[in-house]
Amino acid sequence: MNETDGRRQRGERARAQVLEHATAIASTDGLEGLTIGRVATDAGVGKGNIQVLFGDKETLQLATLDAGVVHYRAKVVEPALALESPLARLRALTDGWFDYVASGASPGGCFVCAASYEYRARPGPIQDRVRGHRESVRARFRETITAAKAAGELRADVDVDQLVFEIESFRSNANVAFLMGDMAVFERARRSTQARIDAALA
Amino acid sequence: MNETDGRRQRGERARAQVLEHATAIASTDGLEGLTIGRVATDAGVGKGNIQVLFGDKETLQLATLDAGVVHYRAKVVEPALALESPLARLRALTDGWFDYVASGASPGGCFVCAASYEYRARPGPIQDRVRGHRESVRARFRETITAAKAAGELRADVDVDQLVFEIESFRSNANVAFLMGDMAVFERARRSTQARIDAALA
């Protein structure tokens, strides 16, 4: 390994370490809770290093939002999409979200939901990024449900947009319920999601 | 009017004026965006006056949260509850929420929803108050649906908790959609709520 590669590897490790602390802070205190000073203290690195690795605060916030999404994708989305049957993918995508939130992997609940609220009145790159993540979640559900219809696993007359909307709605309610410690509503949301999919079975 | 009454009236007017500015700030920037200095500047009163009227920051935040709820109650809940038929009350409570949010009366969307996120990881009096407001919304729906069943307007076999959960879920999704400018999803949530109630008609 030459010197440049070694430097790059060290940089990537440092970046990953900083982002782990940054996502933990942002999960409970929001992306606005991220300051270069606080992240530096928590991650045990110098403020100058954070600036070298991430530039300004907004770049750090965007990288943290993306890191949260990447973590969720690795734990839930990628294993789900590796399944052969579109219906199995749909079940894994929906149930996996409940398992992920319940596991406390993200103590502040769904990162994209929280950021939607946090940036509700602050147009700019972070709000745009949040909107992009929301749209890709929705597109993934649409594709999976459409594929399950094409495979004859879901009925041909299932209204794709309505089913996506209902899955999203139950998730949205479940997330707030989780944050408020209302696990009965959280589990009702999980059951209701499964019931909606069951009702759409071919 | 004696001197004490005059002072009390002036105090109440000043309080109302401050709370109007405080709810406007909190609607978009959250209850944590409220500082005594900022509210004083926006309301055009001295910081000392705010402290006399509200005490500390947390008391101001609690009063602001309550003022948002009181405004919504006056505009939506009270007119709805004045209707004679429980079904008409249910329709006014559900549709009224969509009208209220769409009107921009609260530019940051549902106040209680936003505060649920903001205080997700901060136990204390504000989180407790948020939980209390959420519980009273739910209790109101339960009572109204139960009354509509008793009046023979909704079917006797309607699952009250499930219907309340679905109304809440669509509202939760609609609120984020509104914040993200996604009015197609917002209107789908309104139609879906009406459809759920229609499906429960006796």
Automatic annotation (TrEMBL), chains A, B:
UniProt keywords (A-Z) are: DNA-binding, Transcription, Transcription regulation
Q: Which InterPro entries match?
A: Homeodomain-like_sf, HTH_TetR, Tet_transcr_reg_TetR-rel_C_sf, TetR_C
Where's the HTH tetR-type domain?
12-72
User: What is the superkingdom listed in this entry's lineage?
Assistant: Bacteria
DNA-binding region spans which residues? 35-54
Molecular function (GO) terms for this protein are: DNA binding
Q: Which Gene3D superfamilies match?
A: Homeodomain-like, Tetracycline Repressor, domain 2
Q: What is this protein called?
A: HTH tetR-type domain-containing protein
